[in-house]
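B., you asked whether I could sanity-check this one before it goes into the benchmark set. Here's the sequence:
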Amino acid sequence: MPELPEVETIRRTLLELVVGKEIKKVSVFWPKIIKKPIEVEQFKDALVNEKITDINRRGKFLIIYTDTFALISHLRMEGKYGLFKEEEPFDKHTHVIFHFTDGTELRYRDVRKFGTMHLFLKGEEHLNLPLSQLGPEPFSQAFTKTYLQEKLLKTERKIKPALLDQTIVTGLGNIYVDEALFRASIHPERKAKSLKDQEIVLLHQEIIQTLSEAVDKGGSTIRSYVNSQGQIGMFQLQLLVYGRNGEECRRCGTLIEKTVVGGRGTHYCPTCQKSSLK
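And here's what the prediction gave me:
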């Protein structure tokens, strides 16, 4: 699933590609993607003659703004956007098409059909699910060391599931939690409440630093992620533990191990990330 850096990269490319374009019509070939309004025809009709004015992001969600509406798009596992000329063919995995008056089309393609779209009047998007229960952005002023400490000390969960909880901090997923925990030398199975003050300070710093570097590199190309112009992210070349099971740790030479924590495949270094405190 694309995480904050990948979604931010998609946001930036869509910002260049579609802002200012006017929607002539909308085609929906897989209605289950549309979660609000319930009637797909209402979704399609509402967007006719709307002009795209901005592209924003909240955690892993894209927010496509028009004159009147906020379209919240969650890509889930395989969702992708691409801009095409209307005469170009599309395949069976293309489920939503926004046809523009200039002869181009923004197409949403999703092999696994897990993506979702919610349409709200502008101003209502943050007051309702799926955005209303999200925690602060890692880059926001609200995501302080004190905030993170308060949240972690209140939970009985292990640190990895706690960081994956989008109500605590939004945008973090499997890749970047593994990377931040390694950089902070914290075992993913440690109880969140067992972390010492200095560990939380370092973890807070490494979450922000890891995500910042990933955004700068256009995200990580894991599985089938590419941005909206077909370009791959490059941060995967800098991954220290994720996807490196059986390879040598770049810090100490110990073989990276993989386990399951909170139902998620988890990569860590058994030497650099001690598990003695649980």
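One thing to flag: The chain has a mean pLDDT of 92. Otherwise nothing jumped out at me.
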